[in-house]
Amino acid sequence: MDTARYVVALLAVTAFPAAMLYWLLVHPFVRFWRRLGLIPSYVVLFGVFFAMIGAVYSLRGTLLTVEYGTNWLLVGIAGVLFAAGMVIQGLAHRQLSIATFVGVPELQPSGKGGRLLQEGIYGRVRHPRYLAVMLGTVAMGPFTNYLAAYVLAAIVLPWLYLIIVLEERELLDRFGDGYRSYRQRVPRLIPWLGASR
């Protein structure tokens, strides 16, 4: 179990910050990437992504020094959160192509790529992928019981919320009144709270 906890903690501290940086670079600067073109944009964005993974990986010894051991109650709680996140992610991926998953529609030069997803889980929440990532991020702490995983969750959750806000600006620009109407009908993250800006 110690090896599993360590591997999950290592994956979390290397992949999550790189993914967050990737989307933080895409959404606010989408017009720049569109002008640059799809291939050059991905060369730069994936270059930054993998450089970030490498940089954080080189710090793994420092980042993963404080751990609190296996706590089976926490592992159980984490299992429930992981399972919920995986179900939501699975439902979201039914409507997503790989191209959509990595942001190809956002980077189309026309600025009108892709289509507005409103069916399935997207009819219940506007950002099921981010909701799934949030649940998974929260689950990392109790599963791994590493201090770095708890700190990561405290940093990633507000960071994800910022990315959601930035993505919504881009979606509003891309889909206009269609997205405005969708936003009024469907809640951002939590189905029973009603629609939110």
Radius of gyration over all CA atoms, rounded:
18 Å
How many β-strand runs? 0
Count of individual domains: 1
Mean pLDDT across the residues is 90
Task: Give the structural class.
Answer: mainly alpha
Which stretches of 5+ consecutive residues score pLDDT under 50? Answer: none
Report, as a whole number of angstroms, the end-to-end distance: 42 Å
Query: How many helical elements?
Result: 10
Assign an overall shape.
globular
Question: Strand percentage, roughly?
Answer: under 5%
Helix coverage percent of residues? over 70%
Sketch the topology as an H/E string, one letter per element: HHHHHHHHHH
Tell me the major beta sheet. none
Features:
10 helices, single chain, 197 residues, mainly alpha
Provide a short characterization of the protein structure.
With 197 residues, the chain is an all-alpha fold. The chain has helices at 2-26, 30-36, 38-58, 60-63, 72-93, 98-101, 104-107, 128-144, 147-175, 177-185. Helix 9 crosses helix 10 (177-185).
Characterization of this structure:
This protein has 197 residues and is an all-alpha fold. The protein is built from 10 helices and no strands. The radius of gyration is 18 Å and the shape is globular. The termini are far apart. The mean pLDDT is 90.
Secondary-structure map with pairings?
Layout: H1 2-26, H2 30-36, H3 38-58, H4 60-63, H5 72-93, H6 98-101, H7 104-107, H8 128-144, H9 147-175, H10 177-185
Helix pairs in contact: 1-3, 1-8, 1-9, 5-8, 8-9, 9-10
